Every structure is written in structure tokens, then in C-alpha cells.
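Page 42, continued from yesterday. The earlier attempt failed because a stray header line got pasted into the input along with the sequence. Redoing it now with the clean sequence only.
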Amino acid sequence: MKKFALIGHPIGHSMSPLIHRKLFALSGMDDCTYELIDIAPDDIPASGELIRSHTGMNVTIPHKQSVIALMDELDETAKRYNSVNCISCRDGKLTGYNTDCTGFLLSAASLPLDGKVLLAGCGGVGRMMAIETALHGGRLTIGIIPQDRPLAEKARAEILDMCPGASVDIAQISELDGDFDLMINATPVGMYPKTEACVIPDEVIGRCGSFFDAVYNPTDTLLLRKAKELGKTGIGGAAMLVYQAVKAHEIWYGGKFSAQDIAPIIGDVEKAVAGMNK
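This time it went through. C-alpha cells are written below.
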């Protein structure tokens, strides 16, 4: 029996077991288990043997950086973002990866990441999205509220260090000018239960061509509903959640899945999320 798990604290309700069990089933791997393991932050340094007892693990907050010290090797993605959300154990050797970036890029593949991009939120997953936008040649504007300027300045410095010559501006959301090809929400604004909040005003929504919202609960945030009412393309966070899991299976055992395999799982996640909120 091969053991897999998600570690975090508090672990709460997670879509991970649903997603991973379906991916194992598609691969014909009926000898795999997937569980949720709650590990307090102070216990992470002593968790190496627990992790090694599994074939693979996913990592969620607040452990994505603290587990790095337990890794024998880091993939380039983990080094780039100083963050591990996927661990592979082979012959007792732990390798850390970051599949959030792959999940984002695959779910946003139809969106103009190489165009003029407005990003709200530049901490955590937002930092990754900002870096990927720059790496793909996008002209990035980080939209902020005043108190987030130091974080945005730090993100811009990191981006320019990785991508010299990248186009990175910072502007307060209340003072945004011009049109954007793509708007990305990497903040929790609009997340359940505060579903009637929207990260940018209607006037700015009207000046954006397409949207990606990392929030997956609800599946249709107020931002996406407003965008779609204007006939604009909008993609929610459920797709990213599934695609980062798909990448983990590729890492763990070479799993391969088609778009036709993945689409129903995204639909199942969206249905499960909707059911949670009733």
C-alpha cells in the first residue's frame, strides 16, 4: 500500500482527498491511500520520518517554507519561490517541488499572461503569479491598498532580480489608469463567507479584458460574475487546485492525464464547494 497525504495546520476541510483519489482511480492505482494530517508548526522539525513513511505528500499553510529544512533536494520551482507544496520520497530521499506555478500556468493557459496584466495581491501565491507574469513577458501592474506598498516594493525588487528589464509598476487600486488584457486576483477578497466583496471597482472591471481569480470558494466569485455579465472571460481557482494536483501525480509516479480526464474533476470540485456552502 502506497501512502500519500496533505499536511498543514489547521487542516480543516480540504478538496485534496477528492481530487487525488480521483486521479489515482484514473491511473488504475487502487493500492494508494490519501489522508489529511494536521501537524502543529512546532512539530515540523521532528516530522522527517513521518514524511519519509509516505510515497508523496502535499503541503499547505503554514508549512510551505518550514518543510524546506527537511528536504534532501529542492526542484528548481521550489528554489525559485522558496516554497514547497509537493514532496516526493524515493529511496528515503525527500525532494521538494512547487506545483502551484504549474497549476496556475495550466489553468490560465488560454489567458494573455504575456499582455498588460493587473495583479491584486503579491504575497504567497500572488508573488508566484507576479514572477510567472514577468517570465512570460507580461507588463505587470501590481494593484495595492496603501498599507501593502512595502510588500509590493519587495516583490518588484525580487522580480527585477530574476527578470532584469521586466516591466513592473505599482499603483493604488483606487488610482488605476488604462486598460488591461488580464486581471488576476491573488487576494482572499470574495472568498466564502464574505462573498459580496470585490477586489476592484466596477469601473476597473470594465477596462480589463479577461480575469483569473485564485479564490475557489465560491466557484463564481463576485468578481467573476461581474466580468461574465460584461461578456468577458473568467477562470476561477478550482482549475488551479486540480492542475497543481495533476502535476504532483506526474512527479510521484509519472501519471499522465488528458484534458478530458481533468475537466470532470474540476466540475466535481466545483459541485463539492457549492455543497459545502449550503
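Notes: DSSP finds ten helices and twelve strands in the chain.
Reminder to self: strip header lines before submitting.
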